[in-house]
Amino acid sequence: MSSESDLNKRIATIRPELRGGTCVFVTVSPGGANSLGLGAVMSFP
Questions:
Q1: Of 14, 42, 15, whose CA–CA distance to 27 is shortest?
Q2: How far does Cα 8 stand from its chain's mean position?
Q3: How far apart are CA 26 and CA 28, in angstroms?
Q4: How many CB atoms neighbour CB 32 within 10 A?
Q5: 1: which residues sit within 8 A by CB, 6+ positions away?
Q6: Residues near 40 by Cβ (< 8 Å), separated by ≥ 6?
Q7: Exposure string (b/e) for 7-17, b if CB count within 10 Å is 16 or more?
Q8: Can you give the pTM of this predicted structure?
Q9: What pLDDT does residue 12 have?
């Protein structure tokens, strides 16, 4: 797979797919998700 550095081209070619279930966006302190028994689909440092 080649990498694309032009953000506009990258956004134009993505094909998002809806995941089943309930999804929420939350912010927790480092390690906070583990103590709550949660799993991340994506995380950003």
A1: 42
A2: 19
A3: 7
A4: 11
A5: none
A6: 33
A7: eeeeeeeeeee
A8: 0.32
A9: 92
Residue whose C-alpha is closest to residue 24's, from 44, 45, 35, 40: 40
Give the C-alpha separation, 13 to 22, whole Å.
26
For the purposes of burial, counting CB atoms within 10 Å of the CB of 33, is it exposed (0-12), middle (13-18) or buried (19 or more)?
middle
11-41: pLDDT as tens digits: 899 898 888 888 778 777 777 777 777 777 7
- State mean pLDDT over 2-10: 84
Q: Is the dihedral of CA 1, 9, 16, 32 positive or negative?
A: positive
Helix, strand, or coil here: 21? coil
Amino acid of residue 19: R
